[in-house]
Amino acid sequence: MKEFVNIENFYFVGIGGIGMSSLARYVILGGYNVAGYDRKESDITKDLVMEGCNISYADDTDTIPESVVADSTATVVIYTPAIPAENNILSFFRDRGYILIKRAELLGKISGESNNIAIAGTHGKTTVTTLTAHLLKQSSLDCTAFLGGISRNYMTNMLTGTGDITVMEADEFDRSFHNLTPRLALITSIDADHLDVYGNYGEVVNSYNRFAEKILKGGSLVLNDKIRDKIRTIEGVTYYTYGFEKSSDFRINNLKKKEEAYVFDLVTPEGIIKDVISLSPGRANLENIIAGMALALLSGATEDELKKALVHYKGVVRRFDIRINTSEIVYIDDYAHHPRELDFITESVRDHYGNRKITAVFQPHLFTRTRDHAAGFAESLDRFDRVILLPVYPAREEPVEGVNSGMILDKMKLDDKVVVEKEKLLHHLEKLNIEILLTMGAGDIDSLVKPIEIMLKQRVS
């Protein structure tokens, strides 16, 4: 980062976030002194402390290290829009004239100094980003990568490598992805989400078009065939499509399932790659695999490199994350927080496990998203056999009058449904006969994953 040659310290306000923590790791490796604040301890913050970060969990300016406070010209403060304006620590830095940079702006600076690949989309982008990074890491090209989840292959959300390729997840929240200037970009999907930011679906589409306009001249954009008509053609940018249509530039032929694996031929603009093997579960996930392979091929990876790397791809923590897989009980955890993502999980589980009874636990994320998509959530959840709803996780929002998980419950047609307080969930599950259990949501439901896993393993032991 060329412009930070005189900087000694980076302070991250909200350092435990998945995007913030990957940047913190990046600047640690750059030799900077790194500190930060988050409102609660997590596995991510514990790991960052082990890696050299000084982290506090109180919104108290007295917790800021003296080395950070000593010289405002030698410190850069990174923050996200999710941090409330009244945060004491952020206000301290703002009032005293420190250099303040949004997380997206810092990522944009890194993007501008590298051969950048950016993956956007309302769902699927974390899986595609992680897969693309893995494929390139296992090739002669190598890459540095900023991931929106924890890679199971590397157990981190930040990869470093030689060469100038950076792979980045492009976040649409607060229009953050407009800070990126990619050479190669991909859009997985454009659904109505973050309407608290955009107001309506038309503005969501416009924002993705603005992202596409940020691609460097001479660069390329890969689009899911389903959304090709939503993105305007830009002069100087080469377009490719991927999907299952016969017209898709990257698509699958001769798909077969052999035990736990999928075997297929990948059709590309340059020819056909025969006998590709994927161990990622669920037919619905194949779309993400096509996307990742397309990006790696367009970057210059070879067929043999990709085929070998794909077999060893292990996925992402909290993305169709199979925690238990026995003939008696299957337990899968996922970050799904949009109706389309719930549909993706349903399709994948039904395809992989047949008609075994599915108990789904879902924690709605954000009051505005619950309000805007209550009917969609209800329709998606009705596809399970039993549904347990947790109260809405507010994240950055204040409660909205009349908005709660009961809105979804009341719209559901399924008979076996209930709202359960988070602290009572484990006890509730202990009483149930479970064949397949799904836990889903982008809030703090992840804190229950290990206790649930332990309880279910005791049941089958």
Characterize the structure shown:
The protein is α/β, with parallel strands linked by helices and 461 residues long. It has three domains: 101 residues, Rossmann fold; 198 residues, UDP-N-acetylmuramoyl-L-alanine:D-glutamate ligase (3-Layer(aba) Sandwich); 140 residues, Alpha-Beta Complex (Protein-Tyrosine Phosphatase, Chain A), CATH 3.90.190. It is built from 15 helices and 21 strands. The strands form three sheets. Strands 8-7-9-6-10-11-12-13-14-15 form a ten-stranded mixed sheet, sandwiched between helices. It has a six-stranded mixed sheet with strand order 16-17-21-18-19-20, with helices on both faces.
SSE topology sketch:
Elements: E1 9-13, H1 18-29, E2 33-37, H2 43-50, E3 54-56, H3 66-69, E4 75-79, H4 88-95, E5 99-102, H5 103-112, E6 115-120, H6 125-137, E7 144-146, E8 158-159, E9 165-169, E10 184-187, H7 195-198, H8 201-213, E11 220-224, E12 238-243, E13 250-258, E14 261-268, E15 271-278, H9 286-299, H10 303-311, E16 321-325, E17 330-334, H11 339-353, E18 358-362, H12 367-381, E19 386-389, H13 405-411, E20 417-419, H14 425-430, E21 436-440, H15 449-460
Parallel strand pairs: 1-2, 1-4, 2-3, 4-5, 6-9, 6-10, 7-9, 10-11, 11-12, 12-13, 17-21, 18-19, 18-21, 19-20
Antiparallel strand pairs: 7-8, 13-14, 14-15, 16-17
